[in-house]
């Protein structure tokens, strides 16, 4: 069966635990380019484009997080990836939690980066609905211009800024709007955190204003077996803004997961 999602699949011959990377909104799998380059030499790395993003098909309307998780599960089934470490950033972190709720028996380690487990507030739901309407009417360029220096810090490398801006402006308005509407209705994942039985890594950019360090600390405190990594001088995308520090934390975590999984 041909997978529904577009994806990158590198390092398939490695016997080590695969690493599955779930991107955030409004990005695509190239968000993980530094991590694919860093880790595919030693393990299989799978990075999909979520439904409505990158080269994956667009389905207008509303895409709930459960639909994203089903897509990821279907892709991993098609690729024969049974046991893996699952990492997600921002919306991708919430999708990773939904994946854990659906097929957590396959997850050997969980990485939650710059994300939140709480449900959307009433004000947040209204804001996401309004933004969905705006993106459908205007496209993403104006939005991308406005939020660029919140997605990455103002002092981020210009090439990183350009990459992030390109991802945002290339995203389908229909796909982005559908995700916004679905994400507004996300469940409360906080009760799930206490049920996570595998090691977890919580990562956050020191200067993230979307999901601040305090939010990461609450995730860390709620998870039974978690490590917290605060990446200095980065905002919402530390894997791109400071890949060396992000990868160091991820590499240490992967080593710990594999030691525990033997």
Please outline what is shown here:
This protein has one domain (7-261): Rossmann fold, CATH 3.40.50.1820.
Give a verbal description of the structure.
This protein has eleven helices and seven strands. It is an alpha/beta fold. It has a seven-stranded mixed sheet, with helices on both faces. The radius of gyration is 17 Å and the shape is globular. It starts with 6 loop residues before the first strand and ends with a helix.
Annotate the secondary structure layout.
Elements: E1 7-10, E2 19-22, H1 33-39, E3 45-48, H2 65-79, E4 84-89, H3 91-103, E5 107-113, H4 122-138, H5 141-151, H6 158-170, H7 173-184, H8 190-193, E6 200-205, H9 213-222, E7 226-231, H10 238-241, H11 243-260
Parallel strand pairs: 2-3, 2-4, 4-5, 5-6, 6-7
Antiparallel strand pairs: 1-3
Helix pairs in contact: 2-3, 4-7, 5-6
Which stretches are low in confidence, meaning pLDDT under 50 for 5 or more residues running? none
What fold name stands as the CATH topology?
A: Rossmann fold
Based on helices, strands and strand pairing, what is the structural class?
Answer: alpha/beta
CA distance, first residue to last residue: 32 Å
CATH architecture: 3-Layer(aba) Sandwich
Task: Provide the residue-averaged pLDDT.
Answer: 97
CATH class: Alpha Beta
CATH H-level superfamily: Alpha/Beta hydrolase fold, catalytic domain
Query: What is the radius of gyration?
Result: 17 Å
Total number of domains: 1
- The number of distinct helices, counting runs of at least 4 residues, comes to 11
> Which sequence of SSEs, written as H and E, runs from N to C?
EEHEHEHEHHHHHEHEHH
**Looking across the biggest beta sheet, what order are the strands in?**
1-3-2-4-5-6-7
Tally of extended strands?
7
Helix content: 40-55%
Identify the overall geometry.
Answer: globular
Largest sheet: 7 strands, mixed
Strand content: 5-15%
């Amino acid at each position: 069966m041909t997978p529904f999602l577009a994806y990158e699949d590198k390092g398939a011959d490695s016997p080590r635990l695969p690493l599955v990377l779930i991107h955030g909104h409004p990005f695509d799998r190239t968000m993980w380019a530094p991590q694919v380059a860093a880790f595919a030499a030693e393990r299989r790395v799978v990075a999909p484009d979520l439904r409505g993003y990158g080269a994956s098909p667009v389905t207008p309307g509303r895409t709930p997080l459960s639909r994203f998780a089903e897509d990821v599960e279907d892709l991993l089934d098609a690729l024969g990836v049974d046991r893996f470490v699952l990492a997600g950033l921002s919306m991708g972190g919430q999708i990773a939690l939904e994946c854990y709720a659906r097929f957590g028996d396959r997850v050997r380690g969980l990485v939650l980066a710059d994300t939140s487990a709480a449900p959307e507030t009433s004000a947040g739901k209204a804001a996401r609905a309004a933004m969905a309407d705006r993106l459908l009417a205007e496209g993403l360029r104006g939005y991308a211009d406005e939020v660029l220096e919140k997605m990455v810090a103002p002092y981020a490398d210009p090439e990183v800024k350009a990459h992030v801006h390109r991802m945002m402006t290339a995203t389908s308005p229909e796909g982005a709007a559908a995700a916004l509407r679905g994400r507004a209705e996300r469940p409360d994942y906080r009760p799930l955190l206490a049920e996570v039985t595998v090691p977890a890594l919580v990562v956050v950019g020191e200067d993230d204003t979307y999901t601040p360090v305090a939010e990461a600390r609450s995730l860390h405190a709620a998870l039974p077996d978690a490590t917290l990594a605060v990446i200095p001088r980065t905002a919402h995308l530390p894997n791109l803004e400071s890949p060396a520090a992000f990868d160091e934390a991820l590499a240490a975590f992967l080593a710990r997961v594999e030691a525990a999984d033997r």
